[in-house]
Amino acid sequence: MRLIRVGEVGMEKPGVLVGEDSYVDVSDLIPDFNETFFAGGLDILRAEVQARRQAGQIKSLFGKRLGAPFSRPHQIICIGLNYRDHAEETGAKVPDEPIIFTKSPNTLIGPNDIVLIPRNSKKTDWEVELGVVVGRRARYVLLEQASDYIAGYVLVNDVSEREFQLERQGQWSKGKSSETFNPAGPYLVTRDEIPNPLNLSMRLELNGKVMQNSNTSQMVFDPAFIIHYLSQFMVLEPGDLINTGTPPGVGLGQKPELYLKPGDVMRLTIEGLGVAEQMVEQAV
DSSP assignment, residue 130? Predict the structure, then answer.
């Protein structure tokens, strides 16, 4: 299934995409795609969506805003330098264990919403990434069982302010948690529809120019291992989001470095996970 949330900011309702521009409204069944839903609602939803589709209970997406395809999670956890080619780009050693940092959950926005350059920012950057949404409470998960804890996958942009992140001391989170810094969607694809998350092409264009063009096969640590690993240090809750890292081509890696400015447009794609497009504005 491809889960979506439709409506204006703060008023999104859950639905299931059944065509490129049509969906089944399930807001009478599911209050939201949240912790409660991911803990056990997927199987119930499948049968009902099929019945409604056969009954012709389908709505058009034309003119409607898509929000992030799940509600604000307890936490957004990110994995740094998780692509071999990106580590080479930055001159860093490929890590022996996952590098972990967090983003504020209120950075989550819709796939086509405006991205704001923070006040006093000099180096706001882009990062196309495969997002993983947790489907079960994960605590000391065995590696061989870790895939069962994945609800699905989503296209995300791990927007980053490099000066805040790397030059202002302290945690990376400082450069990752500005408002609008985590666009997600257009939809969440359930795990059964992505049998091999390690062979997905991924791409980011800036103003029509290809900046990132790689494949998830370049990942150092795969999604199942990441869930296993994280669960040894923290409890993951249903609906939590994990951003699994970015390939080369970020602004920091350009020669000379290149960063976002008002009016720029980012277009992101990951195979099987759709297309997102975000315009950039200056925060006031």
Answer: E
Domains and CATH numbers, the chain: 2-60 (no CATH), 76-282 (3.90.850.10)
- The band of 148, judged by pLDDT with boundaries at 50, 70 and 90, is very high
% of the chain residues with pLDDT over 70: 100
The angle at the Cα of 32, spanning 30 to 3, to the nearest 5 degrees, equals: 85
Residue in the structure block whose two tokens are 């350009």: 254
**Contact (Cβ atoms closer than 8 angstroms) between residue 118 and residue 21:** no
Q: What is the rounded distance in angstroms from the CA atom of residue 165 to the CA atom of residue 169?
A: 7
Chain centroid to CA 84: 20
Digit-coded pLDDT (tens) for 51-98 = 999 999 999 999 999 999 999 999 999 999 999 887 777 777 888 999
Interatomic CA distance for residues 211 and 57, integer angstroms: 41
DSSP 164: I
CB of 101 within 8 A of CB of 81? no
φ, ψ at 22 (rounded to 5°): -140, 155
Distance (Å, whole) CA 185 – CA 4 = 8
pLDDT band at 240 (very low <50, low <70, confident <90, very high): very high
